[in-house]
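Practice problem: predict the structure.
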Amino acid sequence: MSAVATGAAAALPRAHRGTIHLERGLILQRNAYAGQQYVLRIAAPLTARHATPGSFVHLRCATRLAMRRPLSIMRAAPDAGWIEVLFKVTGTGTAALAAQEVGAELSLLGPIGKGFTLLPERPRVVAIGGGVGIPPMVFLAERLREDPRAAWKPLVLMGSEIPFPFHARPSRIMVPAAPAGVIASMPLLEEWGVPSRLASNAGFAGCFHGHVTELAGHWLRALSPAELAEVALYACGPVAMLAATARLARALGLPCQVALEEYMACAVGGCAGCTVEVHTSKGPAMQRVCVDGPVFEAASVFPG
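Answer:
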């Protein structure tokens, strides 16, 4: 059962009307990982059909909980009609969601928000994800495989201070200029033929020791000027990581888009509870992360 979201959604600007759907999702698959992290595959045909990398869903974690939780979409299969989300247990809502079993129904609103904009003239996509900011980067890599507009050359870099929400394995895909010994990768991306590398300060085998933005800087500074001119950065993760990514982009003269994560109430633009200051050509402005974002130009949110 599905319907166009009403009520608070009616407060959305005209461009967003009719784009957010209310669906009764069904949990198809549930995988648990260390650090109280979970990946759910949910049948949600309308959301799967319209989702773009960077967009998210607003889930009701249990029928007894009125407040929904925003979760980034990690994968979307339009033909099969399912999406995947990754989350970490951090409170009552996510604990209730983690307790749901295969076959359970979940009410969800989605897809919500403005996603990443691909730049065909810059085919060297460097996708940087930190912690629960990893999902949009996986989704971006998935869509690049299907996008015929350019000969995309993606590199996905992920950072985490707890075990990664997958079983990392040594990569078989060469990444020239990667630091020696940094060979840990995400198996799913390996299967897709997309190179990935991992970073952590926790001492995990095969990972770069340090922040993921340091790993990105190490790789980027090894590129030739011609190669660097083909690079665009995309990032999602903690604010400190996004700010560091914006500084790196500014130092190297690279375009950079960031997906912000913010506490939300309605998540459809009605309450304006998730506003952030964005610097525009007309001066500072307050914009809503849920529908004006969550993706913004890095320089507009982190001007330096």
